[in-house]
Batch of 4 targets.
Target 1
Amino acid sequence: MAANQSGVDSFQLFPSANDNKAQLGFSFLDDSPEKPPIPLPPPCLEVLLSQVSSSVKPTLEPVNLDGLTLLKGRVSTHEVFALSNSDLVPGKYEGGLKLWEGSLDLVKSLQSEVESGNLSLIGKKVLEIGCGHGLPGIFSCLQGASAVHFQDFNSEVLQCLTIPNVVANIPVKSQSLAADAKSWDTDAEVRFFAGDWSEVHQILPNLQTDDLDSNCSPGSTVSVGYDIILMAETVYSISALPALYELIKKCMSHPHGVVYMAAKKYYFGVGGGSRRFVSLVEKDGVMVASLIAEVGGGSSNVREVWKLQFK
C-alpha cells in the first residue's frame, strides 16, 4: 500500500505491478480453486500495558489535525506479521497497522462536534472498535473521558502500535510500564482488548452485569455499555457487517448511546462501505443514522462520517 505525503494510508485492493501475487492481502478474491480456508479467529483476550512489544519499536511521527498534534507510530507488517505489503489477510491480519484516512476524518469530526457543543466526552465511557493506531480513542482521553477501551482484531497490533501510541500521547505516571489500567497520566481508565467482532463482547467489562446490585428495585435502570462508540474504516467487508452491527447493539448504552463512524462511501472491489452499512442499520429499524461530514476526493473516493443513535 502506498502512503500519501501525510503518511496516511489509502485503501488499496490490488498490489502494484511490482508486487508478487502471493503478497496480495485479499486472498479470498483469488480465483484459484486451491484457495486455503480462512483460519479461525484468534482468541479474545485483554492485552495489558505491561505486554507492550519489546522487540518491535515504532517510529513516532507527528500528525497535525486542524491545530491538534498527535503522535502516531509507524511499523511494517513484515516486522509484526512477516507479511510483505499486505493490507488484509482474512482471519490473520485486518489492517490495524495502517493509518487509514478515516481515522483522521473521525478525529476532526469529533473536534468539530465538541467545539459546536454537540458532543461532550467528559466523564463518558468510550469504545473504539477496530482501533489500529487508536487516534480517536486517544483524542477521547485528552477530552476527559472516564474510560476509553481500545479493541482490535489482532493482539499484536495492540502490543506493537496502539499501546505505544497511547503512551506517546498520554504518558504513564511511572517510568516502568505497569499492568494497572489506572497507570496512565489521565483520569480515564485505559484498557485494550483483542478479538473477533462476533466474540469480543464476552470480555468487554462495561457489558458485564454479574456485579450489579441484586437489590435494585424493579423498574430501576442501570447504565450498561458504552456512551460513545468510535470506529473508522471498519465497514469495508460485506461479510463482516452483520457481526459488526450486532457488536454495536450489544455495546451501546441504551437509550442515549451514540456511534461515530468514519468510512469511505464505497470500497470498490470488496463491496462494503458506509452506505452499505447504513442500509443495514436502517433496515433493522432500531437506530437512526445522520451524515455529519463528507470529505471530497473525487466521486470514486468520497469519505463520510456518520452518527448513529437509538430511535
Target 2
Amino acid sequence: MPEKGRIIAVTGKGGTGKTLVSTLFIRFLSEQDTPLAIDADPASSLPAALGVEVRQTIGDLREEVARPSAIPFDESMPTDLMLERRIGDLLVNTPDFSLLVMGRSEGPGCYCLINDILRHAIDRFSRRFSKVVIDCEAGLEHLSRRTMRDVDTLIVISDPTMRGIKTAGVIREIAEKLEISFGKIYLILNKADQGEKAFFEERIREIGVELIGVVPEDPNVKAFDRVGKPLIDLPDDSPAVLAVGEIMERLGLI
C-alpha cells in the first residue's frame, strides 16, 4: 500500500481566517505538486475561495447511503471499495489541485455518517496525494468526533484576541486527552501586527503551542471578499500571500 501523504489540518474558532490560510497553503503547494484540498466545514466556503464550483458533496453521498436503493449494488465489489469509488466521483479535479467538499446533508439527524465517510476519504485519499490540506469545521467538533486522525501538522488560526489564543490551548488539550495523533501543533496569528504579536507571545508560550508566524491585516483580502473574487488569485505581493509563504518555508512545506 502506498505511503500516506503529509496531512495538514487548519482549525480555529470561526472568523479567524482558516479558509484564507488553507487557500494560500493550497496555492503554494500546487506550484510543486497537485495537492488534495478537503473542505471539512459544513459552511463550505473553501470552493469559492479556490474559484471552484462543486456540484456534489459528501453530504449528498450521505443521502444516497441513507437510501440504499439509490446506489447500484455490485455483489462482486467490496463495500469499502464501492464507497471509495463513489467518493472519488465527488472529487473536483483541476490542473493545480483536487477538491473534496463535506457539505451538509438534506435529511434530519446528526453528522455521524458524513463524518464516517469523511474519515474514510481522508484515510484512503491521503495515499494518493503527497499533500492534503484540510479546512476544518470551526470549533472543536472535528476533534471530539475524531474526524481528524493521524494529522502530521495541525495549524490553529487565531485572531489577536485572548479568546482566540485560549481556543488554541483548548484544542491542544483536547487532542492530547483524546490521544489524537498529531505530528506537531502550530499557531498562526492572523490579522495581527508585530505589536500584537509581542503582546500575546508570553500567553502563547503558556498554552504550549508554538507560534509559527503572523499574517497581517490585508486590504486585498477585504477587497476580494467584498466582490466575491477567489482568494487564491490574490496578488503575489499581497501581505497575506507573502506572510503565508514565509510560514510554509518555516514548516518545510516549500
Target 3
Amino acid sequence: MTIAPTTPDVRRIGGRIGAEIVGVDLSRDITADLGARLNTALVEHKVLVFRDQHLDDEAHLRFAGAFGPLTTAHPTVPSVDGQANILAVQGGEGARANAWHTDVTFVVAPPKATTLRSLVIPPYGGDTLFANTAAAYADLPEHLRLLADRLWAVHTNDHDYAEHPQFRTSEAEEYHKVFVGQRYRTAHPVVRIHPESGAPNLFIGGFASSIIGLSQTESRDLLRLFQSYVTRPENTLRHHWAVGDVVVFDNRTTQHYAADDYGDLPRKLHRVTVAGDVPVGADGAKSHVLEGDEAGHYTPQAGRVSELASEPSTQRPPNGTAGAPAEAVA
C-alpha cells in the first residue's frame, strides 16, 4: 500500500479552535512520523478536518489507530455489525446528540480523541459544533478560576436525552434504556490538566450532573455558569459536513454538539474513539469510580483503575468528598 506524505499542510479555520489538514490521503498507510505530526496538530488546534477522503471501515480504523489504542464502540450501545470498534451515529429520534458534551465522560478513562467520518449527509442542516474548553477556562475571571480549580463533578450516563416533553418519543425512550443498560457514575475534576499540553480546561458538559458537596440547585447554577464560557462564539467552530469528510477532535479538551435542524432527513456518520487516560485535576488528584465498573470492556486504559484504587488517599478530592454518601453527590 502507498504511504501518506509525512508533512501535512495545516490551515487554521477558527481563531481559537480548528484546522484543516490538506494534502494527506488517509486511505494510505500513516507513518509514525505523520501520526506524530497529526497528534501535535490535534493538541494545538483541538479539531482537525480532512475533506474528500471517502474512507472505508478498515482505513478509518487505521487512521484512528495512529493516535493510540482504540476503545470498543461504546460502553453500552452496540457497535456496527462485525466492527467492534465502530459506532454508527445516525439521526434517529432516539440518538440525536443535540446537547453540548464530551464523549463518554461517565467512565473513569474517557476517550483521548474521537474520529468521525461522514457517510450520509442531509442537503441542509446537520452541522456539528465544537468548543475549546481550555480557552473557556482561560476566559474565566480569576476568582471563578480559583473556585473551579477546587470543584469535582459527578458524571453519569443516566441523564435525560429528551429533557423537553415535546421531544419524548417511543424511539427516544428505547434508546435511553439501551444507553443506561449499565449505569455509570464517575467523579471528575471540574478543571482537568491536559496530559500532553499541561493546559487546564473545563471538564464538564452534558454528562456532568452535579457538583460534589453542593445541592442540585447550586450544582445546576454553577455548571450553567461555567458552561456559558465554553460555548461563547469565540471558543467554537461549526463544521458543515460533506460526504467523505473525516474529523478528529481532542476529547480531553473539547465539547461538541450535533445541530438537530434537518427534520426526518437521513444523516449517518461512523465513529471510532481512541483510548484515553484517567483525568487529573489542578491539585494532582485523579478521577475515580462512584458507581459501575471501570468499563474495562470498553477501553484498554481502564485496566489501570485497579492500580488507582490502591494509591494513597491524597489522589482523591480534598475534604473527604470522595467518600461522601451517594445521596450527597447524586
Target 4
Amino acid sequence: MGIIDDAVDLMINEKSLRRTWITLIALFGIVGIIIILSYNAIMQSFVGQYLQSQESGIRQIAQSFGLGNSYYLLPFIIFGNNVKTAIITWVSSLTIVIPILIVAVNGGLVGFVLPGAYPNPPLVLFYLLVPHGVIEIPSVTLVSSVFILLISKGPVKMYKNSIGLLLISAIMLAVAAFIESFLTRTIAEIVASML
C-alpha cells in the first residue's frame, strides 16, 4: 500500500482520530461564532488588535492581486501560506496544545473578518467562505487532529503514520487555494447580483 492508502486506512480505522477531527472542526466554528458575537468587545482588547493586524496582512495580500500576471500567482501564495500552517501544526503535534490553538486562532480570524465584510448580504458572505472553506477547514483540522495519535502510538509512530495525512491535507489545500483564487469571488458576485 502507498502512503496515501495508509493514511486513508488510518482515518477509517482510528476512531479517536475521527472524533478529534470532528471536534476540531466544531471548535473552529464555535470560536468563529464567539468572535462574531463579541466583536465590539474584542475590538477594544489586545486580541482584537492582534486579529486586526492579521486581517490587515491578509487584505494587503488580496489587494496586491488585482488584474494582470500576479492574479495567477494568488493560488500559489494562498497554498503556500496554508501548507506552511499545516506543516507547523503537524510538527507541533507533540505539544498537543499548539494544534488546538492554531485551529482556534484560525476560527477566530474567520469570525473576525466576517463582521468587517457585513455590508454584504449574509448570503454573499456565506458564498465568500463556503466554496473553498468546505475543503480548507477539514484539511487544516485533519492535520491538527494528528496529536491524538501521540497517546495511542507514541511520537515516532505518530509522525510515521501521519505523514500521509499531511500529504492528503496538502492536496486538499491546493484544491481549496484554486477554488478560493478563481471561483469563490465569482460565485459570491453572481449571488450578489441576484439579490
